[in-house]
Design goal:
- The protein is α+β, with helices and mostly antiparallel strands.
- The chain has three domains: about 120 residues, Butyryl-Coa Dehydrogenase, subunit A, domain 1; about 110 residues, Butyryl-CoA Dehydrogenase, subunit A, domain 2, CATH 2.40.110.10; about 140 residues, Butyryl-CoA Dehydrogenase, subunit A, domain 3, CATH 1.20.140.10.
- The protein is about 55% helix and about 15% strand.
- The protein is built from 14 helices and eight strands.
- Strands 1, 2, 3, 4, 5, 6, 7 and 8 form an eight-stranded mixed sheet that branches.
- α3 packs across α8.
- The longest helix is centred in the middle third of the chain and has 32 residues.
- The termini are far apart.
- The structure holds flavin-adenine dinucleotide.
- Flavin-adenine dinucleotide binds next to β1, α7 and β3.
């Protein structure tokens, strides 16, 4: 089935024009991805779809080497998430991993390794939930590093990391300990999931089961120069954080858009009574269009380091989450018993929208950051 969506050899990297990327992503999303969305929800990890999206340019166009087209990358994620939120999340995980590799400036990571990643020939995600929360003072760092000759040894456990498997990889951060046990700084590295890494099955989640999510346990895992993304990690994270968060908006808006589609679908049969419901498709579509507009403006300057820019990014990410939650709930109410079937798209989207609201930065984390930034701006 996948042969029909793979683009031909002459439409490769240098042919990733905006129109070609958008067209091919739309074709994959509406065709093979939509067809397997229910299977992905139950646990199928869609690496064939990810490879097709990579070949189509959807996983590489946000990189500086391909024009830093963040708007196009977010549109692509929105298009896929409209059909399947889990695949949208895999795209985000993959996109930010590519961002880490490129922005590392480490020639071991930003050369052919990144090319293969950007084209969807190899796969990897991100293990940054815990450090992102730790840097905001929400929880302690879970990976610890000790300095050794030529690099660091890493120990610790992360409870859930997606888009990894044996032979894949993810960006990770560890706190570097001094002899007295205090933290001197943090290091960021590419964690290759080779024989040194223990991948532990996670408990069954209520959704996102096809995202290949594992617990990761490291015991004296050595990291040398070839895997180093940033040492120290904090300035690097401060630089890429708005881009990290902004990219997630594609996932939120796509889930919302798919939910609006489900509400519209039943208008011919149920419109006469559904018009008494709140969050009608037209109202939600107007909010969606507004969020898309704002996201596209922000996507022009993903490395803007100003406080105002970060606030705008946090705001649109939070609004996207809230919109996805409301649209998913509305789609269930609009579809009624049809949407209450276990196999119905609104059921799946309710769970996907909950994930959008709890994945780091979760809605509560976004609000904490916004409150903190506003307080700095307007101290009491
Ligand atoms: C399906 C799925 C995929 C994910 N993929 C990734 C990924 O690719 N990369 C990544 O870095 N993070 C991943 N996460 C983690 C995610 O981003 C959030 O950190 C997580 O959902 C908790 O966020 P929270 O802010 O709501 O924390 P809270 O729910 O407030 O919890 C705070 C902390 O308590 C711990 N905790 C709470 N409940 C449990 C539990 N039942 N078992 C073990 N520990 C628990 C966790 O360490 C958690 O971070 C994934 C989570 C899920 C459910």
């Amino acid at each position: 089935m996948m042969e029909s969506v793979l683009i031909s050899d002459d439409a490769r990297v240098d042919r990733w024009t905006d129109d070609v990327v958008a067209e091919n992503v739309e074709r994959i999303s509406r065709g093979p991805l939509k067809a397997v969305a229910a299977r992905i929800d139950k646990g199928h990890y869609p690496l064939d779809i990810m490879a097709a999206l990579g070949e189509a340019g959807a996983l590489g166009v946000h990189l500086e080497r391909h024009g830093a087209r963040f708007g196009l990358a977010i549109d692509a994620m929105q298009s896929a998430s409209r059909a399947c939120g889990s695949t949208g999340f895999l795209m985000w995980s993959h996109d930010v991993c590519g961002l880490y590799l490129e922005q590392s400036g480490n020639s071991h990571l930003s050369g052919s390794r990144l090319d293969a990643h950007a084209e969807g020939k190899t796969f990897g995600g991100t293990a940054l939930s815990n450090p992102m929360k730790a840097f905001s003072g929400i929880e302690p760092m879970m990976l610890r590093a000790t300095r050794v000759s030529g690099g660091y040894r890493i120990n610790g456990t992360l409870p859930w990391v997606s888009h990894i498997a044996a032979g894949q990889y993810c960006g990770a951060i560890a706190a570097v300990l001094r002899d007295d046990g205090s933290t001197s700084h943090e290091v960021m590295f590419l964690l290759d999931c080779d024989e040194r890494v223990e991948l532990r099955p996670c408990p069954v989640f209520s959704g996102m089961e096809g995202t290949s999510t594992w617990g990761v346990r490291l015991h004296d895992y050595f990291v040398g120069e070839a895997q180093m993304i940033a040492d120290p990690a904090r300035p690097f994270i401060a630089r890429i954080r708005p881009a990290f968060i902004l990219l997630q908006v594609g996932m939120a808006l796509g889930v919302a858009q798919g939910a609006i589609d489900s509400s519209v679908e039943v208008e011919p049969m149920l419109g006469h009574v559904n018009r008494y419901l709140n969050d009608r498709p037209d109202e939600l579509r107007a909010e969606l269009d507004d969020a898309v507009r704002q996201t596209r403006v922000l996507a022009h300057t993903p490395y803007d380091g100003s406080k105002d820019y970060l606030l705008d990014v946090l705001d649109v990410r939070a609004r996207g989450s809230e919109l996805a939650l409301r649209a998913a709930q509305a789609s269930l109410l609009h579809q009624g018993a049809r949407g209450y079937l276990m196999s119905a798209a609104p059921q799946r989207r309710i769970r996907e929208s909950h994930f959008v609201a709890i994945v780091t930065p979760a809605l509560k984390h976004l609000r904490l950051e916004m409150a903190r930034l506003c307080k700095e701006e307007f101290p009491a």
